[in-house]
């Protein structure tokens, strides 16, 4: 779209290597009235350019532009709303399938409203990378990769057929097939350009590469100076349909880095330290920008690792400016030479190029870290921000075990190993510990094998996820550690499920070239697939005897993974303690086999001559790692691997596609169904209804994640979703995961609030998605209760504590909520993405307006009724009254603040959701 406005007279031409590019010159704009623009954080300069280029007098005004330039005065605290237009959209298949389902449904609905379905197309480039579907069914064998790929296509044929149709039916939409890599690594290594270009009216326009992604770890590409973050599928759909993203001008927290990482530490240790610091500081809804001399001592992959974890520290993004390392990385990964020249020239012309010695930008607030203070670390057992120093990991696991296992008592008598241990019930002291123990824990028999199983045993060790598998330094470190361990005759414990799932095929190439893949294979870390695997709950089942031993004896088994997420119930239903760690530590814990081993002091095992081998004996040096990276990671690898990235393997090419402009829906499909959002929709929206006499579906405490609300992992046989699949002749072995079935609303609404670890306080002491239906007082699954209320014509509300909706930007957490009949969610605070997703589906988020108020302080039990009036005329962030009627008929009024934050969000809400809003505009 062309924009006539140029209030600050800054539309200029930049000539690079014989080509002319039109650009919006920030230095010129500063001369023409935008005082202070040159002192802005680099991330804010990207926003400023976005508004200058998109100024149209309606969605972007000169006042909006001034508000960004004035940032150095108010530092983001003024809360001014702007309309931001990212250059492109990135999707993965879990969140991408429902987005394409919605696009297909919108084509049907456009036709029903009498308009042309061809109008429904992405208006900005969209790339969808299929990376979330591969599961670790086969591991520790040479053919693991081939077997897992076969299983993946067998499970996901319906979804893949649908996505192939989409890639042909829609313009501006590309699909990277399965088995290629993780979306964030493909984005970093190939899709991103740092400076984007497009043709418009015969000119080439250059501007910063920006994006939103339907996965919260989109922020990884912030390491390449690409401003991007995760949004719900709902927001992403709006962005790809040409809607600006409505956002408040953010505060920007500057994170100053100095010094150099000490020998023996990794980028993973650094990122866990940064995550803990920023979580403690509080950066939800804020940008974080890294600066300082220490940046010159981090590789670009290290920066991408830090950017990746922004959702874990709670920030919108974790941005790094363009510098010489950015240019070197673009060169090393095979980007086009003209593009690389443009990136450097553009960044320097715009004042977006970082060099040591230049004055630091102005920030809202700053933190500092001296890299030399970073120590080897893990994070766990439940949250990414709960960092523990490696030296304390064993002791801290002792402490955590009591809580996880439900109040197991700490034994006061030291065991023979010199410190107090958690004994199994009945053990009163060291003399009472049975002989068949390991690390002071009773061993329980495992059918068919000689080894037992006890608390603290590591049953999953996974090198997995975008966070670390894009970083050659930590992967080479894992390979070297495996090589040295193998040479000394160490082996992985037989109860550990090992896996290696790199983020791109380039990784396999350099590991093989260095000869390290054979060492990893020897330790059981065979390639299992290119995808997220363990990090998103696709760890696959544990061997049955192991699973049975854990469940029969209520054992707290552990996983160690190089991922970014370790929430309860996420990695594997049998595993209750999950630790994030660097890839080399993942290999070390696979050898140790237990969280009770203090791997900084205890021997990992014995060599061929019976001598103890310690971690320090096999830990590679920084120099060893650097030498191998230098020798093996080449530009040609990236050029070759990405030469035909959209082509796919023979499986993908064999998929037959049916349907043309609109999709040929199959009523029998249990994967892809036409969703009900547009049923009975008219061209004009109906008036908003108040919430009257609503029943409470759930009372939840703090930190309810989108995983709790809409799990992505395995589907239980004995729940509403399992019942539905069985009734459709799907065998439990073929249930696949919730994530894979996101294109079917029937499965997903039955899975809403169905996480095995969610705790609804209306049913104290019970885990899983159950509630009490009122006034009957009957306990039942949340889905069943919601359907009963729907039949009775009763609206629903949900109450929660702080940080409701943390975690992945999962659109089904909002879609499922609305399909269950929930009209409002009332919490102490919300995570950014989930709040906007609720609004985007027509559910009102409220927070308690009075400090210190919570559903607990109000003494709610769940049998009350809630009424909120005045929603037809609601204004953004308005304070409203809610009436709560107790079971005895007594009433009281409380103050709530509506968290519809902007006028655009209000439009979405009044239309019943963002999709309805866009569809009405397209049809008009």
TrEMBL record:
Aconitase/3-isopropylmalate dehydratase large subunit alpha/beta/alpha domain span: 77-593
Protein EC: 4.2.1.3
Cofactors demanded by this protein: [4Fe-4S] cluster
Location of the Aconitase A/isopropylmalate dehydratase small subunit swivel domain: 727-850
Gene Ontology MF annotations: 2-methylisocitrate dehydratase activity; 4 iron, 4 sulfur cluster binding; aconitate hydratase activity; metal ion binding; RNA binding
InterPro entries tied to this protein: AcnA_IRP_Swivel, Acnase/IPM_dHydase_lsu_aba_1/3, Acoase/IPM_deHydtase_lsu_aba, Aconitase/3IPM_dehydase_swvl, Aconitase/IRP2, Aconitase_4Fe-4S_BS, Aconitase_4Fe-4S_dom, AconitaseA/IPMdHydase_ssu_swvl
UniProt-listed GO biological process terms: tricarboxylic acid cycle
Protein function: Catalyzes the isomerization of citrate to isocitrate via cis-aconitate.
Family named by the database record: Belongs to the aconitase/IPM isomerase family.
Protein name: Aconitate hydratase
Organism: Aurantimonas marianensis
Underlying gene: acnA
